[in-house]
Amino acid sequence: MVEKKLWYTKEAGEVLQVLRTSEKGLDGQEVQERQKRYGKNELTESGKKSTFRIFLEQFQDFLVVILIAAAILSGFLGDAESSVVIVVVITMNAILGTVQHKKAEQSLDSLKQMSAPHAKVLRDGNTVEVPASELVPGDILLLEAGDFVPADGRILENASMKLNESALTGESVTAEKALEALPEQTPLGDRKNMVFSGSFLTYGRGTAVVTDTGMETELGKIAALLKDTREKKTPLQISLDQFGRTLSYLILGICAVLFAVCTFRGMAMTDAFLFAVALAVAAIPEALSSIVTIVLAFGTSKLAKENAIIRKLQAVEGLGSISVICSDKTGTLTQNRMTVRKLYTAGTVYEAEDGMLEEADTAHRLVLDSLLCNDAQISGEQEIGDPTETALLRFGFKQGMDYRAERERYSRLAELPFDSERKRMSVAVPEKEGWRLVTKGAVDGLLPLVTRIETEEGVRALTEADRKGIEEINRSFSEQGLRVLAFASRTLEETEVCLESDTEKDYVFLGLIAMIDPPREESRQAVKACREAGIKPVMITGDHKITAAAIAKEIGILEDLSEAAEGSEVDARNDEQLRDFVEHISVYARVSPENKIRIVRAWQEKGHLVAMTGDGVNDAPALKQADVGVAMGVTGTEVSKDAAAMVLADDNFATIVKAVENGRNVYANIRKSIQFLLSGNTAGILTVVYASFLGLPIPFAPVHLLFINLLTDSLPAIALGLEPHERAVMKQKPRPRDEMILNSAFLKNMAVEGLIMAAATIASFYIGLYTMGNGAASTMAFTALCFSRLLHGFNCKSDRPVLFRRRFVQNRYLLGAFFAGSVCLLAVLFLPPLQRVFDVAALPGSMLLWAIVPPFLGFLIIQAGKGLWCLIKKGCTK
After folding, report:
1. N or C: which end of the chain has fewer CB within 10 A?
2. Contact of 683 with 789, CB cutoff 8 Å
3. Which residues are catalytic?
4. Collapsing DSSP states into helix, strand and coil, what is residue 215?
5. In this predicted model, what pLDDT tens digit does every residue of 436-482 receive, in sequence order?
6. Nearest by Cα to 787 from 752, 811, 760
7. Which of 806, 754, 810, 763 is nearest to 784 (CA)?
8. Model pTM score
């Protein structure tokens, strides 16, 4: 590509010289040579992995590798049942993982679609329309209102051009363009002599020389950032990966010891090996990832009903862990719709309210002139024109003034369009006795042309005190983040109606109209809820610092102006300095896409989980870098949606708070499921280890362990994942990033509960062994462990006792799992065909009772222990 040049710092003629082109454009031969040299004007991407390769990569998890080996060995030794169970579970997980991965590859495709398909250029001095992909540096672009910009370029001619660059820079106000060279430190959003790929012209016309194409454009740099940004694992994934590896080593060690003990005691080596494999399959919670995925999927369904669409399952859990939300301003915290807030006329400041005007007052004249000196239109829900002008039309409607009727009544005779040099627009309209010139523009550009002022008593000469008063009001409005327009008028002589630039003089000052892109009504409450939940909200925007700070202060993000910074301050710091800097900043203005990623990364390096919200192309890399990226579904670009983990269907910042609450509850429920699985597996392992080392008969047949693994594990675990949600989770602080789900307190509870269930199982085993023999003992141990685990689902609902409480019956899914498991267990115990398949002995009623009583006593002991613990701690967390 073209050597790196700061095109905006050069005069237009110098740019043409460096690019070896002219205002007549390139000739055909030169275009072909440059196309060979620079390639197509397209966004490129690295080679994609095939779907099959992505599918195979799902089997790289250490736990899955162990289970694959177990399945192969079991099949080789004739235990087909075990092989089928293992293969089905891990294949289902692999398919789910592949589908999620493929969805994440859509970001660059959306970026490609944003490129304009055709462009008008000058070649050999003639205007031609060519595919945008064939543009080369040096081409002369012809731009008109409504055109998409297909490449980056330096402006050569500018006839009042205004461009919508909000998708690239995040600013809601259209960018006015100019020709002058700019300083090197000028940020992207202020490079007024440039046009950028992906933006579009809303007003005016002009020409530009193409300076960068394809991946060298600002849009291309964002595409490169998307490629280079790695997606993060959620804390739950990391924690389960670490625990799974450790648990696998431990279980394999135990199985190896049991294999040796069984062989030493005379068991056939094949039988001993199959038993060890069955124990490994039962002990390794291979259903853990499936159950977690299912619970997360149910969480996504609930979120979808609340207008939060989850693209990546793990984002549900990640949302519940975030401690920082980095939010874009425009269209996320604000309405992305300029709105009139205040008026100043005849020495009085008015708050903008519906129906505030009277027919004869000066404020009425001010609003009327804002409708006449205005090129915007509103057709139904569609607004055409500059956002500041459409805001004036909407304000007029609220005052009962229809711009169409007013423009017909005062039909425009002539006009001087807005341009960036004059910073004003003028129109000539008829009056009862002649003609009037109405002008609007920037205060600093219009006030020097004013000699008189409109007051309630009439028109009089403008004094120095009046001028200072107007400047003070303008400064006050600006400090509130308001965009200010000044209005003035004068009577025209008949010879002046054609309008020349020197006609704009000797004005009567009418007043000021101040407007802003206001915050969403629900933003303040959402920010408050975030703070109560221990989450720090941070605003990151391409808008000006004073505007961003005003909005942030209004909704509660900012308390003091010292908490606001600009992108240049981020650029001036290295990564280490930035880590210390971000902790004290709540608002970042005039930021680039690179700044956004660095800010997000700095928070992550400080140990925080970061969510990033946004709606523009410029937000996409940071959305992907963040632990949870949240895009806007209505105003958001396809690029931001594809890069995000979650999309808000209603563009409502408050929906994020609901999603956080949902995520925290989902995490709590997953934790309950894990506790249920691991404590049950612990009970089975302890029972087998106890029997082996005391020289007792093996308490379970391999098929018993498979039944437990398939039925009494999965159904209650899934049901626990569907526990009713609690609002109390939003009063808790976010979990530290490095906190493992399987911490010491969790493991202690798991071990104690597993030990109690193991004791109940062993008690039933002893009763059967000394009453009826080995077969009955094994059947009673199997029954006791199944029933213990079915009851244990109720223990895992809460760290408070639930027996005799309403909460005991609140989860209909858990009740269903208990009854379904009980029915299946009874079917196995009493139906002869199933007795043979599952290797159980027929038990008389009295013995079945002894197989059930110890587990029920164990359940009561655990419930009593929870009650005692809550008394000691004076309350529990959930």
Report:
1. N
2. yes
3. 328
4. helix
5. 999 999 999 899 999 999 998 889 999 999 999 999 999 999 888 89
6. 760
7. 763
8. 0.67
